[in-house]
């Protein structure tokens, strides 16, 4: 084939060309290359889309072909392929390590490890990755979807899911709790969906096939419950962040009130002193007697002392302000520790 002599960046195959089996051509290409292959088809059925997926297609576009959509799909497919090529050696090394681990792991241990590791998941991506890892330990290839209030989180063994894989999830959403089509098995729960692409043949190995189906159902049901746990964690984190903001605003307000209180006390003392000085200056031109001046001074000193006593209670209020601010700071530090 000419492709072997000069390997292209991407191939587009027409699924309906006469005297030309596009699916067989794709399978032949997949024997020696992993370059992106996009199928163009007029069929909209799930079975036809799965045929393209089974043959090794990377994506699919419906006829009549929109040139802008095709160019966008081609650009994305080439970018993803080039990124994947740079990770091949690292993935192979990790796969070798994983296979060594899997050889000594039992199926029940896989389920238990998944529950232990996933119960501390902080977000949906971490939970989805734990679920994916557990399924890989069972020797299966899969895609995982977790639905949540902000949309859906997808994970696959090769990174971000392709548009074709996302469309498979959309088609399988109404197929019931368990649905199998040849080597494909779909496990659907309210929030968890799993698509397996290499289930063993039920006729040839019914025992292993049944055990795997049961294990996948347990994993999906456990992940469903743990997704609620993630909901609670994220809600608590949002509330803690809101509390941090509220405490910070309260502290700022109290500091301003304390500064206003101190300014008011200082201004009041200055005004009282100005009042005393002003009254004493008027004695000379009022022609008051010593007895009158003494009476005025006594009355004035008595009133001023009452005012100063009230001002002294303001110092206690400032002490209370400081105590509240210290308590707010302690609360903010505690909330910050709980966030981490």
Q: How would you describe this protein?
A:
The structure is a single chain. With 340 residues, the protein is α/β, with parallel strands linked by helices. 66% of the residues lie in helices and 12% in strands. The protein contains 10 helices and 8 strands. The strands form 2 sheets. Strands 5-4-8-7-6 form a 5-stranded antiparallel sheet, sandwiched between helices. A hairpin with a 2-residue loop joins strand 4 and strand 5. The radius of gyration is 38 Å and the shape is elongated.
Q: Name the overall outline.
A: elongated
> Helix tally?
10
**Distance linking N and C termini:** 58 Å
Strand order of the largest sheet: 5-4-8-7-6
Global mean pLDDT: 79
In percent, how much strand structure appears in the residues? 5-15%
The succession of helices and strands, N to C, reads HEHEHEHHHHEEHEEEHH
Q: Write down the Rg.
A: 38 Å
Describe the SSE topology.
Blueprint lengths: L1 H4 L5 E4 L7 H9 L6 E5 L4 H10 L3 E4 L4 H20 L1 H15 L4 H12 L5 H14 L4 E7 L2 E6 L6 H10 L5 E4 L2 E5 L3 E5 L9 H81 L3 H50 L1
Parallel strand pairs: 1-2, 2-3
Antiparallel strand pairs: 4-5, 4-8, 6-7, 7-8
Helix pairs in contact: 3-8, 6-7, 6-9, 7-9, 9-10
